[in-house]
Design brief:
Oligomer: heterodimer
Number of domains of chain B: 1
Number of helices of chain A: 6
Distance between the termini of chain B: 16 Å
Structural class of chain B: mainly alpha
Strand content of chain B: under 5%
Helix content of chain A: over 70%
Strand content of chain A: under 5%
Largest sheet of chain A: none
Distance between the termini of chain A: 80 Å
Number of strands of chain B: 0
Helix content of chain B: 55-70%
Order of helices and strands of chain B: HH
Radius of gyration of chain B: 14 Å
Chain lengths: ~130, ~60
Amino acid sequence: MTEMRDRKAYYREWYAKNRERLIAKARARELAHPEETREKKRRWQAENRESQKESRLRYAKSEKGAACYARYRQTDTARVAAKRKREHYRDTLHDCYVRRVMAQHMGIKGSELPQTLVDAQRELMILKRELTK
Amino acid sequence: MNNCDELRKELAKTFAQLKAGEIKTSEAAELANLAGKMIGSAKVQVEYYALRKESPCIKWLEAEA
């Protein structure tokens, strides 16, 4: 047991001494094998998608994260990105856009509308767009 | 047209016919107008029940199985 602890302590010490070198070595390998690295990252993301999402949400809800996101929303980059996203939703008649338009003069939220009604409204919008062309 | 799903299919069919030039613009416009009225009336019904905090099964909005 003591021997194992010694070995662990030794390894920790050794790692602390060689940390930079090991990171550089791993990075060099990543650069030398880009396709393998991409595949590895994709696999990791697929395996950890849910936990990553939870972590992001936890950060966004924290005081520090909320302040950070609020600061980001004030920047021109964020405004441009948000506008691009809105335009994309409008052009593709995304669910959120259709729901928002439908709920504009209603006393309820767009999310409360049934999906079948939203789908019908989308078809109607497609037809109306074609008629006004 | 017994339900919302059928209305959606009818609208999609009208759109395809309009694109193919099989129906006149005025005809398609009439159908779009009528469909708008039907959707509007369903919206009012949904809003009414939501404001009353009721959630009854509205048959016209049920999707086909």
